[in-house]
Write the structure tokens for this entry.
Amino acid sequence: MKRLKKARRLRLLAAWLAVAALAPAAALAAGHEIHGSNDFSITYNDVQGAGGSQSSLTEGTRYLEILNLFGNGRAGDFDYNWTVGTKATDDRRNDQKTFSLTNLQGRLTNKIHTITLGDTFEAFSQYSLNTAVKGGSYKFTPEQSHLPQVSLLYGIAYSRWDNFWGVDAVERQVAGGKIRQNIGPDFWIGLSGVQTDDHVRVLGGELTNHQTWTVDWEYRPIPGLTIQGESSWLNGDRSPSDGAPFDAYHGHAHKVVAVGDGGPSRVTLEYERVSPEFRTTIGSATPDREKVKAKWRYKYSKDLSITSAMLWYHDNLDGQKAYGTDHYKPEIAVSLKKPFARQYAVADISYKLDRAYSPVMRSLDHYITMGYRDRFGVLDSDSTFGIIVYDQNGAAKRKDVEFTYNTSLSSRHTLGRFVLKPSIYLGGWTHNDEVAENTDQIVEYSAGLGVDVPDLKITSTIRVGENRLLKEAGTDTAKTFAGANVFWRPEMLAKAQGMLYAKASVNDFRYDPNLAAGSRNFRETSVTAGISIQF
């Protein structure tokens, strides 16, 4: 059985690779366009210190090659295009494979009939299918409005092409189709069906098989008002582990959204109900949830906008739990341009309440965020300040206050052939835990300088700074960092839209000196040089 499945996957992959191999040849023979981009870089990483095992860098010299080819042309009455992308690297923290096929697609269309092979995405609906597959699709888009639009799809829901030749992943075969029919100029309705079958279990994981039928529609009764909806019914069975039998289950999901957009207002109303057993694998939904959401954006004037929203949702729809939890999340935000008669100023403030309630728990959390952007002479400033108050009673008690704050100043100066862009940044986070009676802080400060030479097409930046974590109960840490980037577009690479670049960074990590001296300290240095071209 496994041999048959493997042979089936290899045949499907061989067909896709054959298309990819023939498409460039056909394009060349017909004299059609082929373009590409290539980025090649070499990185040297050095990690020193007793705590070097904590570094995220791979030591030594490593390379990274990213190549993409694109083609398009016309064959008879059909337009076609194709793309092939690859990545090669010997850095396992960048990719687990030395060579990877990152994308592969071919498309043929005459505006009525469209065939796609390789990386294929057809969004049937939120619930039934909104995930890309490795496979193929056919789409019929009639010129006459009274004929239905038809879409067919088959493939395997792998996230990587490498999954076909050795990287463990569940083999999830997907087959489906959708018919969409216009019923007058203001109303359309669609019917879709999708079948998924899992064939290879990975690390004792769950296998599922699903049939999902969905009806979606859209109606525009008057100008400025759009009403959309979809309903989905699922029949499935699952095997939770090796040797376990398949258990059948059924679920359903429904959603209606109304959007009114006219004048200074935009209003959105949404209702959704998803049953506990609706477990979509290639769509998106949160099982066991009923929610109502309303949002109103009102532009009072060209400088003042007000946005308000309310979200309510709860679970335990079928009474399958001992109790359910209700959530209430109202919020309001105000954006004001030119406050205090300042031409370049923008002020924002928002408040959100998150209230959750159940028979055994109550929480009431407050979120306040304020922002202000302005220009003072040659200085541009951007500042934000936030407060979060957590208040939870029940089995897990929590009474915390978090403060976040940051500000940045920057400017731009032209001195002869140079453009200088200095900047400074100061930010931090403070957490007060009233239950544990301790306070933790993070403080970060840095200074940067950008240097551009426009006539030589050079841009560069350098930044140095420090990030400190100060814990009342725990280990203090500090990271001193410095980084520099240089990008150059020389004339000799102008035809290829080429760019040379270099990057360097140093991070020095230090821990509480009360620990064994230097037992966790380390320094990491990384230098990268590369070339990027388009052709």
Summary: Helices lie at 2-30. The chain has a mean pLDDT of 90. The first strand starts at residue 33 and ends at 48. The chain has one helix and 27 strands.
